[in-house]
Design a protein that fits this description.
This protein has three helices and no strands. It has 69 residues and is an all-alpha fold. It has one domain. 6% of the residues are buried. Keywords: Membrane, Transmembrane, Transmembrane helix.
Length: 69
């Protein structure tokens, strides 16, 4: 149970970003594989996602470009 809660959060963040991207083909199996892989490897991807979000909120808009996770 403890594994699935953060994994579902990572899955939802990845699918939300994927759905927001208008240029991405929704039937591309490679993108769905990346979402699945990021969900399985959430102990690595979740801290990366959270770190990016923290730096985006802390940095002004013109300085947020250097943060690429």
């Amino acid at each position: 149970m403890l594994y699935f809660l953060p994994a579902s959060f990572v899955f939802s963040v990845m699918v939300y970003g994927f759905a927001k991207d208008e240029s991405a083909a929704k039937n591309d199996l490679g993108l769905w594989f990346v979402i699945l892989l990021a969900t399985i490897l959430w102990p690595v991807t979740l801290p990366s996602i959270l770190l990016k979000k923290v730096f985006q909120k802390a940095a002004p808009e013109n300085e947020a470009e250097w943060v690429s996770v």
